[in-house]
Amino acid sequence: MYIALDAMGGDYAPQSNVEGAVLFAREFNIGVYLVGNKDLLEKELKKYDTKDLPVEIVHAEEVIDMDEPPSIAVRKKRKSSMHIAAKLVREGKASGFVSAGNTGAAMAISKFVVGAAEGIERPGIAVAFPTKKEKPTVLIDVGANVDCRPRHLIYFAVMGHTYAKEILRVSDNPKVGILSIGEEEGKGNDLVKDTYPLLKMTKLNFIGNAEGRDIFTGDFDVIVCDGFVGNIVLKTSESLGSIIVEMIKNEVKKSLVSKIGAALMIPALKRFKRKADFAEYGGAPLLGTKGTCIITHGRADSRAIKNALKAASDFEKTHFNDRLKENIDNLLPEELKG
Amino acid sequence: MYIALDAMGGDYAPQSNVEGAVLFAREFNIGVYLVGNKDLLEKELKKYDTKDLPVEIVHAEEVIDMDEPPSIAVRKKRKSSMHIAAKLVREGKASGFVSAGNTGAAMAISKFVVGAAEGIERPGIAVAFPTKKEKPTVLIDVGANVDCRPRHLIYFAVMGHTYAKEILRVSDNPKVGILSIGEEEGKGNDLVKDTYPLLKMTKLNFIGNAEGRDIFTGDFDVIVCDGFVGNIVLKTSESLGSIIVEMIKNEVKKSLVSKIGAALMIPALKRFKRKADFAEYGGAPLLGTKGTCIITHGRADSRAIKNALKAASDFEKTHFNDRLKENIDNLLPEELKG
């Protein structure tokens, strides 16, 4: 098995990407195609002992910038590292691809170069949020589809179910909710009100409306929403998390006693940070494409890259798309299929 | 000036409500009508020295439960403390009312008993979020209006502008944004794309799309959104904030050294908590009603009640609704009025 890594994408590319690939190949003995500028990558790779490691460089002469519009990335920059990594998946040489680069571009390239999986109209991005409990909650979609119809949310629910069950292994029959305001049926906007009865018709373990606060309680395994709301929730949460840490740091700086206190707390804070770190869960997969596409944070370090590669290989190992197809067949009533 | 307080609403009613009212009347010498069960309130009030304090009890025999549907609250329980407090505003005896009770009911009662202000079709709830900077950012609407049209968001923008300028005093010309995904014009869902050009037509200091992360940076003074998205953002943020604190506490408990560290950090953590506490800003006002309506958290303690009463009196002192009317006249082009 090989995973294609966009070795040029992300704030710390190619250093972190190469290091992450080496760590991954060493630990799991799974192959990695490092896609990007050959000279740069060879130089980076020399820093490590890669004898017998299944790490191969595939040259790509272009790089997609972080602020490049996705349409340009797809149509104009066909020699980019992201494009070529996706092509390796389309051609069956790699089973999935990982990028820490421009999220919109990675999504568009997955969709148009790799293509949607059989029976899927709209792939969706899933993110595993840390919760109070020892297991994450999957929110889907967090940005691939801005305006959605009820039908799309039903498919997100099946994708989220499959992800929570097969990859995150949080439950054999994940509890599914729909993001809304108010707990009772009938509360929410038009999209929620139209989707709710359809979710009840499925064989999913649908337990009703989830509110904003439920994302972090762990009471739901999967929460579906349109990509507009989901993206705002994701960015709000990431930002609030880092600002709380910063505010605490600033307060602590104001006194020597607090500083000493903070120093003593460092191990606990580090454990917390690891727990709250979205990267720990291996980035955000775009579910419902033919091959696997994992999008990690632009700030991805080598550990995050390694985890994302691991996640991509898990998708292949668990035959994720076969499971997804079965679930669509088994969990959805006929009138919601096709 | 008198403010009507729903003395029976909230988790710690009537104790905290009465204490908050006494603290407020003592500090600002502004009148409070304590609305609720006369016997209970008299007993509570005896705990304090209220000689010469302008605190008066107004009897109400019913209480609206936290889970009572708003429609029942408005139509069936006309003798509730919330209802009678709102009626005092409608009759001009009080200039505003404050409730820590059932939010949906408080909103519905404000709308139907007090009524919308002149020229306002849809009142909206504003929340002041703490930011990295020393000033809050106003998000409006956080739940009064689930499905919105562009016109409603334009009015929310003017209400938010007036609130940020007159009450929070963050700026003379508050920077206004619209919550979306992606910074550039043209990014977002249909509602955002339709509202953006209309916001550009106003004389508001409109600076474009705000992303989820911008709520806490302090780069915007006012961010508008529909009540569905706003409510989810509010609840997500409140929940994440408290869960982060809980996760840190749990990590700290695991070692004695961390416990000592945490103990030393207590003053810094308290300062942080005060800063991050939404209650500090005096609850969430429902903007665009004839009188002032301030909704505080169900968990409101006496300090939060006092701050909410203070906020209600600030609305009256600054002639908020007159300022709002002027701003609608001056900032909106003719085609967006009426």
UniProtKB/TrEMBL annotation, chains A, B:
<protein>
    <recommendedName>
        <fullName>Phosphate acyltransferase</fullName>
        <ecNumber>2.3.1.274</ecNumber>
    </recommendedName>
</protein>
<keyword id="KW-0808">Transferase</keyword>
<dbReference type="InterPro" id="IPR012281">
    <property type="entry name" value="Phospholipid_synth_PlsX-like"/>
</dbReference>
<comment type="similarity">
    <text>Belongs to the PlsX family.</text>
</comment>
<dbReference type="Pfam" id="PF02504">
    <property type="entry name" value="FA_synthesis"/>
</dbReference>
<dbReference type="GO" id="GO:0006633">
    <property type="term" value="P:fatty acid biosynthetic process"/>
</dbReference>
<keyword id="KW-0594">Phospholipid biosynthesis</keyword>
<dbReference type="GO" id="GO:0043811">
    <property type="term" value="F:phosphate:acyl-[acyl carrier protein] acyltransferase activity"/>
</dbReference>
<keyword id="KW-0443">Lipid metabolism</keyword>
<comment type="function">
    <text>Catalyzes the reversible formation of acyl-phosphate (acyl-PO(4)) from acyl-[acyl-carrier-protein] (acyl-ACP). This enzyme utilizes acyl-ACP as fatty acyl donor, but not acyl-CoA.</text>
</comment>
<dbReference type="GO" id="GO:0008654">
    <property type="term" value="P:phospholipid biosynthetic process"/>
</dbReference>
<dbReference type="GO" id="GO:0005737">
    <property type="term" value="C:cytoplasm"/>
</dbReference>
<dbReference type="InterPro" id="IPR003664">
    <property type="entry name" value="FA_synthesis"/>
</dbReference>
<keyword id="KW-1208">Phospholipid metabolism</keyword>
<keyword id="KW-0444">Lipid biosynthesis</keyword>
<comment type="subunit">
    <text>Homodimer. Probably interacts with PlsY.</text>
</comment>
<keyword id="KW-0963">Cytoplasm</keyword>
<comment type="pathway">
    <text>Lipid metabolism; phospholipid metabolism.</text>
</comment>
